[in-house]
Input
Amino acid sequence: MLRFLPDSPPGQPLRVLCLGAHCDDVEIGAGGTLLALAQERPIEVEWVILTSDAVRAREARSSARWFLSQGQVLPASLERIHIHEFRPSFLPSHFEELKELFYGIRQRMDPHLVFSHHRGDRHQDHHMVAELTWNTFRNHAILEYEIAKFEGDLGQPNAFVELPRPLVDAKIDAIRTHYASQADKTWFDEEAFRGLMRLRGIECNATSRYAEAFHLSKILL
Output
């Protein structure tokens, strides 16, 4: 599937770092790709979310545990779920603390692949995470995922991962099951999630009709 990305050494799992500003960002932006990766090969995942409250933290941990229990995800990944409690919409005001946090992640993990927000994302929290990702993981493969929202900043991604229909359904069902607190949001419904994946499937001529899309700025061949 992701044949153009660095592979793990023989006999070792692919180390994947998932970064999200908010509790449901990773699942919405890259959940299908994670499920597809786990079907293909053993992966070891570190899952880091920066903002939450008591309710959303419980939802995020439950959701992450479900995604990290699928396919060939190493069981140790379940111990590497980190849900922080920074205040949503105020991440830029915590720059120094966040810089230290990202430095700590880099000290304990050298990922083969990083999922993070797109640097062109206009949401202040998303943009901050994207910038810190590139500041911290300067020599790594980074796939910047997209989140549909009020700001209307969806662009022209250049990396596509085709998703079979069962994985699309599983991703959507998991998000809706684990994030009941978001059900009243105008952007949080099956039509929105499936519609974006269908559109990206058209753009990459996916035989399955569905895909997730990412912004890929650099790759060493």
The mean pLDDT is 95. The first strand starts at residue 14 and ends at 20.
